[in-house]
Design goal:
It is a single chain. This protein has helices at residues 23-30, 39-44, 47-58, 65-72, 79-95, 100-108, 113-125, 130-141, 146-155, 157-162, 164-171, 180-189, 201-205, 211-216, 223-237, 241-254, 258-267, 269-274. The chain is mainly alpha-helical. The chain folds into 2 domains: 12-126, no CATH class; 129-275, Alpha Horseshoe (Serine Threonine Protein Phosphatase 5, Tetratricopeptide repeat), CATH 1.25.40. Helix 8 runs antiparallel to helix 9 (146-155) and helix 15 (223-237) runs antiparallel to helix 16 (241-254). The protein is globular. The termini are far apart. The relative contact order is 0.07.
């Protein structure tokens, strides 16, 4: 199967059940020749097969003992954890490769969104400062694929949690970037609670520390960004509801834009339930 023979599948709509995914689509996904288009396809992957194929495609040994050992134990882990173990195995193999940078580039630009997701996780494995980790994450934060963008912020979440104020200072320009994916990354990465990740205790206790970043996004024209900002404030409302309420009142008084009204309405949904 060649990449060109799958062009007619790239604009497909994802099956709403795993059992309905076409065999041709599964073949392309598992060979690293197609991107997933929904969660069902992501969950349907034959991860060992994909890992071996991707390893070969980026210039690594698909039959290496280090990778084989990892693939043999994947069943003992939860689905999301499995990707972390595959990523680490590929990282370890690359560390021994004579052309490490070339291998890393091929993985980061791979056709498969899942391979690029594995590349995001290399950021946390390297000994980099917070500023350099954010720089490394930027290409993935702007990735066209939604899944890669989610893995991008999760890859640097722990280091941001350890240095929240430094992260806010570094991310401030991101909140004003022309690319909505970059702006959304700045918001999503710093959410007090977030999804599938560690909580940022500093922002749960004192969400006002992130106010400069939030203010830059309060009337963002992108619905993608608006939803993230609203979710940020909804997270904060669970520990600092009065502050979120006051902030939203001020935003509405200062901005009559539909974007701000939308953000406030979604941001206060937990507060309204408790009223």
């Amino acid at each position: 199967m060649s990449p060109g023979s799958l062009d007619h599948l790239k604009s497909r709509k994802g099956a709403f059940r795993i059992a309905l995914i076409a065999p041709e689509v599964l073949e392309g996904l598992n060979d690293g020749l197609l991107e997933t288009v929904n969660l069902n396809e992501f969950l349907a992957l034959d991860l060992p097969r994909l890992a071996r194929r991707v390893a070969l495609q980026v210039g690594l040994d698909g039959g290496a003992e280090r990778l084989a050992d990892t693939l043999a134990m994947l069943g003992a882990f939860k689905p999301m954890q499995r990707h972390g173990h595959v990523s680490r195995a590929l990282y370890d193999l690359t560390a021994l490769h004579a052309e490490r940078d070339a291998v890393a580039h091929r993985l980061a630009t791979h056709t498969s969104d899942v391979a690029r997701c594995w590349a995001t996780q290399w950021i946390a494995l390297a000994d980099l400062s917070l500023a350099r980790q954010l720089d490394a994450a930027r290409r993935f934060a702007a990735d066209p694929h939604f899944g890669v963008r989610e893995f991008a912020w999760m890859a640097v979440r722990d280091v941001v949690s350890a240095g929240p104020d430094e992260a806010l200072a570094l991310l401030q320009p991101w909140a004003q970037d022309a690319d909505p994916n970059i702006r959304r990354f700045a918001s999503e990465l710093t959410r007090p609670r977030g999804v599938w990740c560690a909580q940022i205790e500093a922002f749960k206790a004192e969400p006002w520390r992130a106010l400069p970043l939030l203010e830059a996004l309060r009337a963002d024209h992108s619905r993608y960004v608006q939803n993230s900002v609203a979710n940020w404030l909804n997270d904060a409302s669970k520990t600092q509801g009065e502050w979120v309420d006051r902030l939203c009142e001020r935003w509405l008084a200062q901005s009559d834009l539909p974007a701000t009204h939308y953000i406030v309405r979604r941001a206060t949904r937990t507060l309204r339930k408790g009223a």
